[in-house]
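Tutorial handout. Part one gives the primary structure; part two gives the three-dimensional structure as tokens.
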Amino acid sequence: MRHIRLLAATGTAVAALALTACGNGTGTEDEGAAGPTTPVASAGKAASGEAAAQTHRAAAGGRTANGTPVARTHAPGARPSASPAARGGQGGTRAGTSGGTGTSGGTGTSVVLCNGANTTVTAQPVTRPLNHMLITVKNTGGRTCELPYYPVLRFDRMQWVPQADRDTQPQAVVSLAPGESGYAGVLLSAADGSGTGGTTARGLTVGFQGLTPNSSGGPSATPSLPAKGVYYDSSLKVTYWQQEMDDALNW
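Part two.
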């Protein structure tokens, strides 16, 4: 009996050694190694990684993996480039730019001067201010005309030209649309009698200046005077052309 138990114990020890050797080699169990990865877990991880890669590629192309559009946002500080027109640079259209020749009134045509050919001119003495006369020029043409400087007056055959009062020079050249009127005031004689060479005139010629001082602006006009004539002396003086009647008389 003792011999039988010894043999049984020896067999058990041999079997244990065999199992241990197998586990350290190609066996199915090793106490010191990490647990093996199952095929199902590996496949799951691979599928998850591939799905993430597809999602990244799809997002880069503007859509998710299932085809849903991806909402894009700009990175901080990044701004879309504006078009040249929006920037106001080359290639844009500038508001208010004229295609004309830059002439008076923005009409794209040459300046038309007011003169005896396209206006009617009247000369009428007034009661206030004393010893004054009002010259009125009405545009009867079809285009806007301008009245530079002041009228060039000549009573009868007088050999001198009355000068303009510099204080009456307007800030802009008088411009008359068709049907509009411009004005000039005339001081005929000194109210205190200080003038000399007084005489009565029966005729009047009104000359028009051009765009430069003392140049011709076109045909003159010969407005009628009252039947009794107009008295003037060496104090004779005129205003610059005015847009308003009051400006022509209040000096």
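Part three, for discussion. The mean pLDDT is 72. The helical segments are 2-24, 39-60, 84-87, 245-249.
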